[in-house]
């Protein structure tokens, strides 16, 4: 297997492997299934893992990391890059540091490598049913939340901070008030949602983009098979002796974007790492650039079609 390249993140000492294993599934996979998948991923060569409080996978990831260290699959905690995310119900005054500590407790870790604001929205109560009552959903007080995120860095709870699902406008606002600029914006990005404007904006501002749903989150509540079932990508894959998934992941990588892709299947997680010793031709890139653009993931699906939520979805 070709080595997994790493990326430099602004203000973060440790480099991040460009492909990470996602751990979101819905309904959430049970602890043992997730733990076994993470251990399998570590054996396959993954060193970057992506979780979130809202995924319910922090505990399983933490147990797998502890087990991997016990088994000697990795030498030390610092060999791994672990990202988790602040859920909307903790995005209020005085809540950010305790939320980060709660995630660390779930993970049984002393620090994470990256802590992201999961969505640019606050919920004043923790509600897991959809729709969330509209009166509980508020815009973020960016200054309050980012100061809390910065405090997490200053306390050593995380090495870096960033955001997820942020538009150019929100990033602009955040940059104008941040003492520690966001290192990452994690967004939906794939051949069917190419995010050209956001990519250009983030490049100019030195914010690295990580793609979630790079395969269109096939077989999940929030995804579909528009990527893995697409003929243009399948034809490119056949001609190159690759799989459609590999073509989609390689395309994401060639855009200078890192990847959080989920597979709990041993063969597929290995297959997804085999994208670093070949490249797409200009002709293939041209065909992919012409694919129709359709957004898959919406906040409205999780919180309900409230005006603020629809506005956030429209900006992404
Ligand atoms: P599984 O876990 O059974 O492999 P995304 O990365 O866009 O979130 O997509 C994740 C979905 O795609 C999961 O349902 C995962 O299923 C599936 N998947 C991951 N890798 C591959 C692959 N190489 N080929 C086909 N399906 C894949």
From TrEMBL:
Q: Name one GO molecular function term.
A: oxidoreductase activity, acting on the CH-OH group of donors, NAD or NADP as acceptor
| Alphabetically ordered keywords of this record | Oxidoreductase
Any one GO BP annotation for this protein: secondary metabolite biosynthetic process
Question: Pfam families per the record?
Answer: Aldo_ket_red
| Domain NADP-dependent oxidoreductase residues, every copy | 19-290
State whether keyword Oxidoreductase applies: yes
Q: Which CDD domains match?
A: AKR_AKR4A_4B (cd19124)
Coiled coil segments of this chain: none
Q: Name the InterPro entries for this protein.
A: AKR (IPR020471), AKR4A/B (IPR044497), Aldo/ket_reductase_CS (IPR018170), NADP_OxRdtase_dom (IPR023210)
Question: PANTHER family attached here?
Answer: ALDO/KETO REDUCTASE (PTHR11732)
Q: What protein name applies here?
A: NADP-dependent oxidoreductase domain-containing protein
Tell me the organism. Answer: Salvia splendens
């Amino acid at each position: 297997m070709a080595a997994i390249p790493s990326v430099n993140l602004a203000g973060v000492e440790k480099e991040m492997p460009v492909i990470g294993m996602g751990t979101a599934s819905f309904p959430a996979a049970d602890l043992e299934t997730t733990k076994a998948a993470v251990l399998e991923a570590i054996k396959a060569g993954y060193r970057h893992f992506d979780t979130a409080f809202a995924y319910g996978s922090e505990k399983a990831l933490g147990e797998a990391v502890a087990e991997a260290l016990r088994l000697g699959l990795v030498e030390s905690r610092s060999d791994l890059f672990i990202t988790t995310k602040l859920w909307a119900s903790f995005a209020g005054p005085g809540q950010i540091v305790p939320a980060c500590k709660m995630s660390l407790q779930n993970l049984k870790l002393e620090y994470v490598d990256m802590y992201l604001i999961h969505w640019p929205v606050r919920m004043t109560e923790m509600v897991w049913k959809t729709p969330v009552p509209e009166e509980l959903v508020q815009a973020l007080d960016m200054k309050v939340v980012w100061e809390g995120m910065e405090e997490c860095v200053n306390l050593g709870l995380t090495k870096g901070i960033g955001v997820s699902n942020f538009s150019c406008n929100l990033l602009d606002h955040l940059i104008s008030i941040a003492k520690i600029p966001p290192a990452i914006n994690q967004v939906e990005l794939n051949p069917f949602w190419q995010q050209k404007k956001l990519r250009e904006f983030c490049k100019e501002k030195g914010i690295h983009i990580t793609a979630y749903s790079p395969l269109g989150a096939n077989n999940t509540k929030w995804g579909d098979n528009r990527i893995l079932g697409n003929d243009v990508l399948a034809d490119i894959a056949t001609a190159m002796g690759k799989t459609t998934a590999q073509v989609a992941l390689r395309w994401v990588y060639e855009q200078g974007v890192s990847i959080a892709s989920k597979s709990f299947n041993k063969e597929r997680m290995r297959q997804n790492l085999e994208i670093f010793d070949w490249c797409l031709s200009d002709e293939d890139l041209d065909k992919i650039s012409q694919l129709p653009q359709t957004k898959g993931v919406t906040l409205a699906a999780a919180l309900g079609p409230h005006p603020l939520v629809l506005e956030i979805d429209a900006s992404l």
